[in-house]
Known about the structure:
Elements: H1 3-14, H2 32-71, H3 75-112, E1 118-120, E2 126-128, E3 131-133, E4 136-138, E5 146-150, E6 157-166, E7 173-178, E8 183-188, E9 196-205, E10 211-219, E11 226-234
Antiparallel strand pairs: 1-11, 2-5, 3-4, 5-10, 6-9, 6-11, 7-8, 7-10
Helix pairs in contact: 1-2, 1-3, 2-3
Amino acid sequence: MNLALVSGFCLWLGGLALLAAPTVVPGAEPDPKRTMDLARLSFQRNILETSLTPLKKHLSELILLEKSRAETRDYTGAIEARDLRKRLETELERLDKELLLLQTREQSIRSSMLPDRIRLSLESAKLSGVRRDGGAITGWAKPGATAEWKLNNLPPGGYEVVLRYRCTPLEGGALAVQETRFSLMADVETTLKGPQEKNLGTLKITDGTGPLKITARTVLKDNLMQLLAVDLVPASK
């Protein structure tokens, strides 16, 4: 292994700064400056993440080299390997902090580019135990009935979940809104004056490309509700 190459590679990483193609944020108005800033941060993050695997491999090799040289009483060589190992460990710690900073900046820009509301299309929902009827999702006849959406690359963070629905006096019950890790529970109440909008609260979304599910927990009689729209409102808005 070329120890000088390892050292040079670490120094090269510290000064790297390039541009990449823009990342699209769903439903947002184009903003050339923020799009370019996002592209730069995303590219730098990808480069640093890609560099971690070979650097960790080099670190393992240096640990073994230091040990083998010490065992053969090549103390000068062992000290040289030790010094390079420490430099590489310091570099990995620096890269880890830089990655965290880049991720934080990238998430902040992506969040600022989101629209005030993100509507989940009823037509794109994957249905289980429910059906589409007249522009609504209905037929929530049993607990476990589910409508599921795949999120479109949303920045992780808090989102208020707002439902628009109709619920007659013989309908209603309780539902759950779930993402990969977190969930919200809410009651579905009778809408006496036609369709109404209800804010269920803030759901923390950890995986912006993962699933979001609305599931019936209890059903009063034959149907939980007639679901007309589902909106996500970024908590930062």
